[in-house]
Design brief:
single chain, five-stranded parallel beta sheet, binds ligand CA2
């Protein structure tokens, strides 16, 4: 069974409570419940983690080493600032898909650059809460494609 760690960065615990015009009306709990249901249907074991602290996010990524097959991450504002998160993802070498609720490329210029993109399998943004669902499917397909074909088949 594939094991996926979902990681949410700073302020994403505020989803659904503020700025619904940008980030939608769904709470993080609702998004996670839908993701868990999606993961169950795909036969994937899913764990979710959110923190406002950069160090705690690095710790979570490091803890995934040897324990998880893939990471689905919305690094929040750390996307645009954090060499530490980028280094952690590179260090563990776990295939990682970067997701964003909003389309960061059509927002302010400072959101256009992602430190994470260069160490991610790919990036999905702009689809609201659906970015997570699409990201999970893309990650699972990528992980399945990496699996060795059993001998004799
Ligand atoms: O679009 C995304 O998913 C972002 O990662 C969200 C980050 C932002 O800094 C990135 O540029 C793009 C911000 C998350 C803040 O979430 C809030 C939720 C409700 C109310 C206020 C902030």
């Amino acid at each position: 069974m594939l094991r996926v760690q979902v990681v949410h960065g700073p302020n994403l615990n505020m989803l659904g409570l503020r700025e619904p015009n940008i980030y939608g009306r769904q709470t993080l709990a609702t998004i996670e419940a839908s993701l868990v249901a999606e993961a169950n249907a795909l036969g994937v074991a899913l764990d979710c983690f959110q923190s406002n602290s950069e160090g705690a996010l690095v710790d979570c990524i490091q803890a995934a080493f040897g324990q998880k097959d893939g990471i689905l991450i919305n690094p929040g504002a750390y996307t645009h600032t954090s060499v530490a998160l980028r280094d952690a993802i590179a260090a563990v070498g776990i295939p990682t898909v970067e997701v964003h609720l909003s389309n960061i490329h059509k927002r302010e210029a400072f959101r256009h650059h992602s430190y994470i993109a260069a160490v991610a399998v790919g990036q999905i943004c702009g689809f609201g809460a659906d970015s997570y669902r699409l990201g999970l499917h893309a990650l699972v397909k990528h992980l399945q494609d990496l699996q060795p074909i059993p001998a004799g088949s």
